[in-house]
Amino acid sequence: MSIAITNTLLEKTRSLSIEETLTFLADEFKGKVVFSTSFGQEDQVITALIGKNNLPITIFTLDTGRLFQETYDVFHKTLKKYQIDIKTYFPETSAVEELLNQKGPNSFYESVENRKECCFIRKVAPLTKALKGNSIWITGLRAEQSENRNDLDLFEYDEKFDIIKFNPLLKWTLEEVQKYLDDNNVPQNALHKQGFVSIGCAPCTRAIVPGEDIRAGRWWWESSHKECGLHQK
């Protein structure tokens, strides 16, 4: 059934702009459309589209407890500029306490398994809570961000979270994202000007150098597929 709905949405929105599609979804799935933001460049484009059009779409973010101060700064600026609400989800305190008591604060550096455990506690579990009961999950994913995202569709059914995912910026280039942000004076994370393209938790993110892959700065010490479990198929 979800696959059929996905195909129907692709057909109904084929000739619509992003703003028109967001409006359509908000009307078609009233109260059940959510957008997850980490305040990166792509997410800020979508937040601007939702905010300036006053769309009834719930915006939420995951506060892992280890974010950069610059991320909180752009969070605050975004609230002020668009006069919107952004719901925050935190990891379960008991799970974080148990992790640190058993393995210490930097266990994620020791193995991919440990890193994924930390990502699950701080990101995947809170996301599961945030998505529960909703029908459409809007993301800022772009195909050129990584090899894992090259085969994504504009609409797709996410079996893991039992929800339909909408990726409005899927075919955008980074240059198009940056142009939209600059042209519309959208708040941006100050770290972007310091070589940070993909920004996550502070201990797990570094700046990249010219020629490096966009995701090279995430979990830079490992050679995994550079996903945390939020969007992994």
TrEMBL record:
Its EC number is 1.8.4.10. CDD domains: PAPS_reductase (cd23945). It comes from Flavobacterium psychrolimnae. The active site is at C228. [4Fe-4S] cluster binds at C118, C119, C201, C204. HAMAP family: CysH (MF_00063). This is Adenosine 5'-phosphosulfate reductase. Residues 33-207 form the Phosphoadenosine phosphosulphate reductase domain.
